[in-house]
Amino acid sequence: MIRNYLKIAFRNLLKHKIFSLVNVMGLVVGITACLMILEYVSFELNFDQFHQDVNRIYRVTNDRFQKGKLIQHGTITYPTIGKTMAKDYPEVEDYTTIVGTGRVKLRRDKSLYPEENSLYVDEHFLTFFTFPLVVGDPKTALKAPNSLVLTESNAQRIFGAQPKDYASLLGQSLYIDLDTEPFRITGIVKDVPAASHLQFGALVSYETLVRTWGSWVKDSWEGSDMWHYLKLKPGQSGAPVDATALEQKFPAFSERYFKGDKVSGSVEKFYLQPLRKAHLYSDYEYEIGVVNNGKAVWTMLIIAVFILIIAWVNYINLATARSLERAKEVGVRKVAGASSGQLIGQFLSESVLLNAVAFVLALLLTLALQPVLNQLIGKPLSLAVLAGQGYGGSLMTLALVGIFAVGIFLSGFYPAFALSAFQAIQVLKGSFKRSAKGVWVRKSLVVFQYTASVVLIIGTFIVFRQIEFMRKENLGFNMEQMLVVSGPDLTRWDSTAIDRINSFKTEAKRLAGVKAATASVNLLGNRLPRTFNVKRVGSNEEKGVTVSRMGVDLDFFDAYKIKMLAGRNFLTTDSNPNGNKVVNAVINLSTVRLLGLKDAVSAVGQKFTLFGREWEIVGVVSDFHQQSLRHPIEPIVFLPFYANGGFYSFKVISNDLEKTIDQIQEKFQTFFPGNEFSYSFMDERFDQQYRDDQVFGKITTFFSFLAVLIASLGLFGLSSYTIAQRAKEIGVRKVLGASVTSIVALLSKDFLKLVVVAIVIASPIAWYAVRQWLDDFAYKIDVSWWIFAIAGVLAVGIALLTVSFQSIKAALMNPVKTLRSE
């Protein structure tokens, strides 16, 4: 019987080619879009899930308050926190402490191997997390000073080693940056999974920091550069102990060790963030890991669901729209003895066959488009990630199979039930009429389709307007055509360092393609270091304020066109190779207000304390957006400091960039031999802060287009069948003198009414959704009414184009052909 059902279903699909093509196209596009989005969502949700004890691992976060005001919401805190919490609270099974080193260079003989990210980690790290060692002992590999663990990729890159050679690497030495002491390789670790918020190419033992930074890295309650992770003990049922209950003990911890704000100058509050939330739910400063916007990820999942539902709604709409055409078939079958159950089985088999064909084609299309999607969003997505390696593993595969099975059944059940319910006598007598209930259902489904589409259109408009606003807003400085060169990490600092840096800048400025040159310790767009307890000399305030700081040379403000409001720029005499002899500073307008000074002019000549000594304000510059518009403007203190490992910025002329870059490289290697020349453009680096938002915008645009396409396919098919059923009516109207325009308007208005209803429903939903997304930005666009109007006009236009093709075709038809049977 099933074989017979499928045979008849296949014949029906071939008989009605247009219907089948429209339905298959809608389902293929819908399922493909859904699979692609689910790949992305599964990858994002899967971050850090590979750790064996992920449900018991938490990250310690630290909020700092001064005068009742939150001045830092961060993930870094003091060296002693992890081990002290492990000692004080029996709920803690283990802890690990991490320090980020950033980009370092590994040296072997005379060869340099840049490494994008390395971490200083304590001896617990490799037993705490699930980063498996290929060779070496995870308990001892990072115990001794100058111990080094490489990833497999770096072992292959530096030594040309194959897996069988890894054991021979143990005990061999490498050098890091300018360190003269060798680092002994004590282990080779598997490459870090892409879905890990901690990314590294090498691990260095934390004990090494004691040698290089001093003993404070183990016992200080003031220096704050460490990340701490805690592993809670399993409870009696196997679940971890209650993290919330442990958090409630932290206020006493703060009072015990920080005594209010007496120790650090701030009131310290500590919290626990589950490791599984570190990637998607991090609104913290000084983030060590790879993070994304959880709201955006869940929004994409909602879009996937909507697109799939829209595709299935198409099938329901088109199948029920053909009810009159198949009514006689049902009547004949019933007279011949077919039961309702058999008819339902027949129509369900058609649904299953159509969906199965669409699913296979969707899988093939997903594979074909996979490289395009991966390049678009910069992530290693694949069907394998979705089917077993992503979030939920094999359970995700079973869940998807279940969802598709239920969706196929539900999308086929209503048309099957509706078609099998026809009364044979009424159908064969010709007295069968469409039910008002069926028409209402189809209209409701069209409204749902276009409601979802309009929400996506509005969301896409808002996302791109916000991104364009952030990229084009006046930031308060000029970074156009600014070439940034990383400083010479392998050149030692000495008494001649400042003169050498200035000589390099002078030589570079003589090049025809260079208009300005400046050196800075920090780079605009990067998170600046902070200094706490900064006070204005003569102030009655007991506690100071918190400011960001930036080391710059005397050309910095001119090169970046930052306006000097009062006082003077830095002079050559303000700098000194001995940092303790530097006493002059420039501040921005926000710092003027924060220090309680009247205005920029009166601030010049005032003094404040920083690093435990006095500084004089020699100039005040205007405020500018040091970071993206997600963040408020920072109070910044500029100090005339230089650093070998800083940055050089060159204002270049675009006539022959390649030649200019080559000339700068030549000068760089003359003054800093043996150093790698690495460059980028400032606008590109600054735009990296918007990368996740740009990816989100591209994804929403692409899949919004697909949602509209699917809805339009459904409307096209539905209008085709509806107009076909009104062919005789159109013929009569033409005979009675109706114009083509009036007939097109008559046939189109019913569908356009549905689209207008969808716009009315979609507008408040879209407004709420975009407001939630915009809340993450300190500076954002206004959600104007005209955006909704444009989206509405666009939706109406798309619907009108979709329907009008069929309407015009019907209106131009010769009425003799439609009325000859009458």
Brief description of this entry?
This protein is an alpha+beta fold. Among the domains are: 1-46 and 292-433, no CATH class; 54-277, no CATH class. It holds the Pfam family MacB_PCD.
DSSP strand content: 15-25%
Low-confidence stretches: none
Instruction: Output the radius of gyration.
Output: 34 Å
Overall strand count: 22
Structural class: alpha+beta
Number of helices: 28
Q: Report the sheet with the most strands, covering strand number, pairing sense and barrel closure.
A: 6 strands, mixed, barrel
Shape: globular
How far is the first residue's CA from the last residue's CA? 40 Å
Strand adjacency order, main sheet: 3-4-9-6-8-7
Mean pLDDT: 83
Question: Can you give the helix content as a percent range?
Answer: 40-55%
Question: Can you tell me about this structure?
Answer:
Keywords: Cell membrane, Membrane, Transmembrane, Transmembrane helix. It comes from Larkinella terrae. This is FtsX-like permease family protein. It is a multi-pass membrane protein. It is found in: Cell membrane. With 822 residues, the protein is α+β, with helices and mostly antiparallel strands. Among the domains are: 188 residues, no CATH class; 224 residues, no CATH class. The model has no long low-confidence stretch (mean pLDDT 83). Helix 11 runs parallel beside helix 15, helix 24 runs parallel beside helix 27 and helix 26 packs antiparallel against helix 27. Strand 18 and strand 19 form a beta hairpin. The two termini are 40 Å apart. The longest helix is centred in the middle third of the chain and has 38 residues. The protein has a six-stranded mixed β-barrel with strand order 3-4-9-6-8-7.
